[in-house]
Amino acid sequence: MSTARTVLETEEHQALRAAVAALGKRYGRDYMTTVIREGSHTDELWTEAAKLGYLGVNLPEEYGGGGGGMAELSIVLEELGAAGSPLLMMIVSPAICGTVIARFGTDEQKQKWLPGLADGSLTMAFGITEPDAGSNSHRITTTARRDGTGPDADWLLTGRKVFVSGVDMADATLIVGRTEDARSGKLKPCLFIVPRDAPGFGRNQIDMELHAPEKQFELVLDDVRLPADALVGDEDAGLLQLFAGLNPERIMTAAFGIGMGRFALSKAVEYARTRQVWKAPIGSHQAIAHPLATAHIDLELSRLMMQKAARLYDDGDDVGAGEAANMAKYAAGEACVKAVDQAVHTLGGNGLTREYGLASLITASRVARIAPVSREMILNYVSHQTLGLPKSY
C-alpha cells in the first residue's frame, strides 16, 4: 500500500482494505477461472465475504449492516478485484438495491430485505436497460398500471429488460418502470420489487462472449401482478430515487475497474521484474517500465475521483456525487482497459496463455467502459451538466 493512500484513508479504512485483500488472496484468480469454467457461481467467496460483514458494510447497522457507505463498499470490491476475484453482484445487490431500499423503502421493505442483503442470504438484481432505450430513463417503456383504484390496488407491470446480471441467482429484481401521472398524464420513473417466481416474469439467458460467473439475461414482464407495496418509495419521487441507485452503481463500477486494472498491473510488474531476454530484466527498459508506470498513475488518479464520489454520496450530496461518480467511472474504465492491454503486451505470448490469467481480462475490462453507461454518455453528461454546453439531442 502506498504512503499516499494511507494518509488519505482512515485507520478503519486501511484495516478494512488489508482484511479484504487477505480474503481475496485466499481465493485469487484461479478460483474465479475455475468457477467460470465449471459454469457455477462464486458461492463460497460470497458466503465468506458476507459472514465477515463485507457485503453489507454500507447498509444500516439496525438491519445487520456495517453502518458505512460507498467509501467502505468500494474498498471491498476494489480489493477483491485486485486479488483477481471480483464479485460483480456487489454492484447490484448491496450497492444499488440495498441503498435504494435503505433510503426510500418502507419499514416493511427494509425489514424484509435489508438483513438478508447485508448477510448475503438474499440477493437482488437490477433491471433498467431496455432493447430500444439503453439506460435512457426518459425512453423506458416498461410501464405499471393500477388494477383498480385506491392505494391498495395491485400493480400490473409490462415490458422488457436486457443485460440484467445474476437474475438466475437473485431472489428478486428491482425493476425500473414508469407509471402515469394522473394529473399530467406523463410517464414518470418508479421502482418495483419483482420476486423471481412472480407469474408472467420470464427470463432468457443472453449468449455472451464475455465469460463471467454472473450470467446476463433478457427479462420479459407480461402483466406481472404485484401488490401495492411492491413499489419502492414515493410514487412522485421519480428520478431522485433512481439516481440514488445509479450513483452507487457508477462508484462501484469504478472500484470494479480499478481492482481489475491493479490485478493486471501486478502480474505485469512481477513478470517485468524477473523476465530476462538479454542481460537485465525487461522491466529495466523504459519501453516496458514507462507504460506500466503510466498505467499505475492512471489507476491512482481514478481512485482519487472514486473516493471523492463516495465521500460526496455518503455525505448526502447527490448532485455533487453524480458528477464525480460519472467522472470516476469514466476514468476507471479507461485506466482499466489500458492497464490490461499493457499487462498483456508486457507478457507477450505469455499474456495470452491460461497460466497467467490475463487474456480473459481483455474482454472483461471493456465492461468498465461500456456498462452501466457508455463513456460517450458520460462525456455528454459532463459537457452538458458541468460545462454548460448545449445538447445535440
Descriptive notes:
- There is one protein chain.
- By secondary structure, this protein is an alpha+beta fold.
- It contains twelve helices and eight strands.
- The protein has helices spanning 3-8, 11-38, 43-51, 70-82, 89-104, 107-119, 239-274, 286-314, 318-347, 359-364, 367-370, 375-386; strands at residues 124-127, 143-147, 154-165, 172-180, 187-195, 201-205, 216-226, 231-232.
- Strands 1, 2, 3, 4, 5, 6, 7 and 8 form an eight-stranded mixed beta sheet that branches.
- Strand 2 (143-147) and strand 3 form a beta hairpin.
- Helix 5 packs antiparallel against helix 7 and helix 8 (286-314) runs antiparallel to helix 9 (318-347).
- The model has no long low-confidence stretch (mean pLDDT 93).
Q: How do the strands and helices of this protein lay out in sequence?
A:
Elements: H1 3-8, H2 11-38, H3 43-51, H4 70-82, H5 89-104, H6 107-119, E1 124-127, E2 143-147, E3 154-165, E4 172-180, E5 187-195, E6 201-205, E7 216-226, E8 231-232, H7 239-274, H8 286-314, H9 318-347, H10 359-364, H11 367-370, H12 375-386
Helical proportion? 40-55%
Please work out how many helical segments DSSP would assign.
Answer: 12
Note the gap between the termini: 45 Å
The chain-level structural class is alpha+beta
* Beta-strand percent range: 5-15%
The outline comes out as globular
Q: If you average the pLDDT, what whole number results?
A: 93
SSE order in H/E notation? HHHHHHEEEEEEEEHHHHHH
Number of strands: 8
Please outline the major beta sheet. 8 strands, mixed
Residue windows where pLDDT falls under 50 for at least 5 positions: none
**What integer value in Å does the Rg equal?**
21 Å
